[in-house]
Amino acid sequence: MRRAFTLIELLVVIAIIAILAAILFPVFAQAKEAAKKTVCVSNTKQIALGVYMYTSDFDDIYPQTSWESSATPQPFNTGKFQIHWTNQIQPYVRNWNIFVCPSDPAPVPTDAPCPNGIQDIGQLNGSGQMYCDWAAQKNSYIPVYNAMPAHDWTVVSATSYAEPANQIIVTEHRNDLIAADGHKGLSGFWPSQPCGNVGGVSLPSPSSATTGAGSNGYAYFTEAFLNQAYANAKLAGAPGSSAYGKWFKAYDLIRVSWDRHTGGQGANYSFADGHAKYEKLGQTVDNNHYQYGDRWYPTPQAWGSCP
């Protein structure tokens, strides 16, 4: 006579399976995130090499973060659309997918996406004008203004850097504080530009952000200050409000997702010499080895002045 499982035995087996699943699922999740992190660091490596090759072809000059207008607008671009750094290095990387990190839950969309996706990039309408952004349609990475300046700043030469292997040029983009202008860059210095206000928001005193001034009056950030600034930005109110802007616009290094990988411990960074690596926030803002540059570029400006 065959003996069947009793109810107690069945419940014991189910309990054992549940315990094993509880033990193994976090391990599987960690392994999956480790794989995503590896893909992401590969992306930042390709981006670093793409930017490096771009500078080699353009007399050591970095691309700007975006080109939106000029003193004499070109017929094909009235200033409404942008030609983004992701488009400028595309001939060297030949893959739009590298601009999306698999660990990023919400890559930042470009401001004016192309109606037919990437196949429209570089195309003009019947009037010979742009009709969408020439940019990665979604992007997980953000450039450093110290290398790739905003459209209204002077371009930067790669020869400016005393330590190219220590100069971050691109890193991971935070997505939980983005309301608009997600295609912009970041600065590792305070202020990120010399104006007395940014977007109508009066900038708070730099003394609360510094561990020391840069060679032309700009200050270094500390890890503790950045973590507090990020926390304050999240509590400040709706994106776009003056309280929110005080933190997000003034201290734009918090645009970096320095806590994306390894349980909130670090992020991936591209460097000026073409290499990339994973680091913790404290390593990047070590005041004795500051990886956002030895000084602010591209053009020294006195505090309170605007270009």
Give a quick precis of the structure:
The chain is α+β, with helices and mostly antiparallel strands and 307 residues long.
Structure description:
With 307 residues, this protein is α+β, with helices and mostly antiparallel strands. It has a domain at 12-63 and 140-284. Helix content is 27%, strand content 11%. The chain has a four-stranded antiparallel sheet with strand order 5-6-11-12. Strands 1-2 form a two-stranded antiparallel ribbon. A hairpin with a 2-residue loop joins strand 8 (197-198) and strand 9. Helix 4 runs antiparallel to helix 5. The longest helix is centred in the N-terminal third of the chain and has 51 residues, at 7-57.
Q: What about the largest sheet?
A: 4 strands, antiparallel
Helix content: 25-40%
Q: Order of SSEs, N→C? A: HEEHHEEEEEEEEHHEEH
Structural class: alpha+beta
C-alpha end-to-end distance = 93 Å
Uncertain parts: none
Relative strand content: 5-15%
For the biggest β-sheet, the strand order reads 5-6-11-12
What is the helix tally? 6
Q: Using the alpha-carbon principal axes, give the shape.
A: globular
Average pLDDT, all residues: 82
Per DSSP E runs of 2 or more residues, the count of β-strands stands at 12
Kindly provide the radius of gyration, computed on alpha-carbon positions and rounded to a whole number of angstroms.
23 Å
